[in-house]
Amino acid sequence: MAMVVGGGTPVLLGTLAFLGTKKADGQRPSLLSAQTWFAVLGIAAAAAGLFLLLIIAVFLAVQRG
Asked: Which keywords does this chain's UniProt record carry (predicted)?
């Protein structure tokens, strides 16, 4: 449960921040656009990578005492 919340929160917040921004032409991203879905996929991949680094860092800190 904690991993779902810990992994899903950055994805949700990043996606909401992305959808709340305006592009250079003044339009917000559309959920019907493939470009938006690739950006959300990138946000999810970045969050997963950072979450994995956090798990590794905690593991190493516990191992070293």
From this structure: Membrane, Transmembrane, Transmembrane helix
| DSSP state, residue 19 | H
- Look up residue 53 and give its two tokens: 């680094």
Alpha-carbon torsion, ordered 34, 14, 17, 9, to 10 deg? 120
Task: For the beta carbon of residue 47, count every other beta carbon within 10 angstroms.
Answer: 20
Residue carrying the six token digits 């339009």: 27
Rounded average pLDDT over 52-62: 92
| 3-state class (DSSP) for residue 23 | coil
Query: Is 0.70 topped by the overall pTM?
Result: yes
Sequence-ordered list of residues with C-beta below 8 angstroms from that of 53, at least 6 positions apart, any chain? none
- Quick one: which H or E segment has residue 35? helix 34-64
Single-letter residue type at 41: L
